[in-house]
Design a protein that fits this description.
alpha+beta, globular, D-amino Acid Aminotransferase, Chain A, domain 1, 13 strands, single chain, Dna Ligase, domain 1, Rossmann fold, 5-stranded antiparallel sheet, 34% helix
Amino acid sequence: MKIGLITKRDKAHKTGSVMQAAVSLLETRAVTVESIYPEDAAIDVSRITADCDLYLLKSGTEMALSLAGALHAAGARILNPYPSVVAMRDKIISTKMLQSAGVPLPVTWFAAKPEQLEELLLKYGPIVVKPFWAASQGRGVQVIRDASQLAGLSTDEGLFFAQRYHEPDGLDYKIYVIGGNIFGVRRVWPPKTLEDKLGEPFDVPADMRDMALRCGTAFGASLYGVDIITSSGEPFIVDINSFPGYKGVPGAAELLCEEITKQGEITKQTK
């Protein structure tokens, strides 16, 4: 079996990487893992072919996503599927898909100009404005409590993505999914240190488990993370991300190895 790992070179050998631990386990099973670094050289589109049994889309850069899209067009099987990853990363699309899945979300809008959000402030109270395209560690996220703050908003994305702000009761709930395995970690947001990212493990209650599984079904994904807050005891999904780092998840490398092997075998059987 041959696996193509689309990643960033500076991440490939990062100390403590769950993904690299999973790669080492795969190699002990005689699985060939080819690391692909899209940013390393110019890519001839005409030479892109699906020569691996399965590709892992671990990087979210524009180069990585474009390569994955071209591989998808060439018939490659990617974990997670390329259309699922793009939908997860676009908060407007992912919000609509999650609404259709029936999971609890804050009321959500997008607008061309910041002043168009003023009426929402008056009607709903504080709002949170975020980049609509996936960001990490809270970059670009602002809580707006007064109309005067709207004047200072700017964006390079061409639109403003906003949600009703619900004051969290405490730490965020991070739900990690690897195939059919679900794990929960409570942590501060945004995480700034390794200790923050590891968080505090917790037993995932039935309602959050159901919410997480609905998310996976909506996107057709088997490797993902879901961020949940509770406000006055009511849960809200505030983010979803494809192929997280799985820090703080016990046995994550072994479970990743199993899921990747299973998905690779499915591809081989259908060839």
